[in-house]
Amino acid sequence: MAKTIRSSGHEALRDALIAARKNAGLTQEQLATRLKCHQSFVARVESGERRIDVIELVVLARAMEVETAKLLAVAERETDADHRI
């Protein structure tokens, strides 16, 4: 079984989330405030220690005012076609 947390798709999604946060002009702390969570949550997501589910992706995208589809497209493009769950 392939692990998704260190897959190319997951790493591309992490990079896209970091870029989206920075493009929004937000620090991890500011994003955490918008999400009503601790900065450590944002840090764990961005470092790859924590995966996010699709609902969390929607909430993160909204908080950064970016289209969820754009973030999802990055993960889809970078995920190997034969990747197994």
Automatic annotation (TrEMBL):
Protein known as: Transcriptional regulator
Entries under PROSITE patterns matching the protein: HTH_CROC1 (PS50943)
Family annotation (SMART domains): HTH_XRE (SM00530)
Signal peptide range: none
Domain HTH cro/C1-type: 17-71
One of the Pfam families matching this protein, by short name: HTH_3
